[in-house]
Amino acid sequence: MDKLEPLDHCYGTTLEEIERTLRYALDIVSDGIWDWNIRTNHVKRSPGWYSMLGHPPDSLPEDVDTWRSVIHPGDFERVMRNFQAYLDGESLIYAEDYRCRCRDGSYLWISDHGRFVEFDEAGKPTRMIGAHRNIHRRKMAALALQRKNDELLALNRKLEGLVEARTEALRQANEALARQVEAAMRLSETDPLTQISNRRHFERSLHGEWQRFQRHGHVTALLMFDLDHFKRINDNHGHQIGDRALVAVSRTVRAALRDEDCFARWGGEEFIALLPETDQGAALLLAERLRLLVSQADPSLPLGLTASFSVAAMQAGEGIESLLKRLDDGLYRAKQQRNCIVGC
């Protein structure tokens, strides 16, 4: 068997020619190549590399420091860190995009890829080859797009913030308006002196309860009372004492009633209460209890208070006007006697 000839002799091509061919091929697929002899720190760069950065061929020192000197300061730490990670075997590839300084002082975005191609007997790398590509246009377009996206994101966040602030302001305004409406409604239904229901509110409550009575027949009673000799109080002691008496009586009676009972100032010194689910007998017992409480409403007043009461329960087929007239007539009779209760 014939002895094998070296590869270069077999094909009639020297290793130098093979490398030159590879460099030509690399120049076609890249804008510049570099060849680093790790043992000597010598770096050979292709003419395309110099041309890409605006330098005459072979016009810069052929070492690693030349490469370091052209890297943008803003990219330098990242590139060095990742390059060292490849040298130390911590990373399987070396591939970075960064800016290189051109001869005129401007910076050009390039893509840099490299790998080990030769090793010594111990397996340590002795040679590394890499290729640069000019990606400036693509990178600038990507950065411009990123800036636009960032601007749009910032604008969206600003708009969202404005919408959120506007929504919150609208919510607060609505809540304030609701509170105002509620306060206005409360004022429209409340007697300003005694802070109990006024006649308007009572009449609306009475109408609703009367309709419920017509549909379902639930027992309901009304109670009306009038402070005895109230004009004498105002004439002898002044309206301030009279108002104090009205407030004290209202507070005392309201505390003795249920939440579902509607208690109102009917006019002047007259008061009325709507008592759902209460029959005539229970209403009379309540009236007696309230009659005693009225006399104890404000012991500091210059004279004692008494009241006359009328009690009436709703009756089938009876209208509201008839019911109120019956109650009013009963109160008239009670006032003839003073400090008593009349059921009607």
From TrEMBL:
One of its GO terms (biological process) is cell adhesion involved in single-species biofilm formation. InterPro entries: Diguanylate_Cyclase (IPR050469), GGDEF_dom (IPR000160), Nucleotide_cyclase (IPR029787), PAS (IPR000014), PAS-assoc_C (IPR000700), PAS-like_dom_sf (IPR035965), PAS_fold_3 (IPR013655), Rev_trsase/Diguanyl_cyclase (IPR043128). It catalyses: 2 GTP = 3',3'-c-di-GMP + 2 diphosphate. It is found in: Cell inner membrane. GO terms for cellular component: plasma membrane. It holds the Pfam family PAS_3. Keywords: Coiled coil. Residues 94-147 form the PAC domain. Its cofactor is Mg(2+). Its EC number is 2.7.7.65. The keyword Coiled coil applies. Residues 145-190 form a coiled coil. Residues 218-344 form the GGDEF domain. One of its GO terms (molecular function) is diguanylate cyclase activity. This is diguanylate cyclase. It comes from Metapseudomonas lalkuanensis. The lineage of its organism: Bacteria, Pseudomonadati, Pseudomonadota, Gammaproteobacteria, Pseudomonadales.
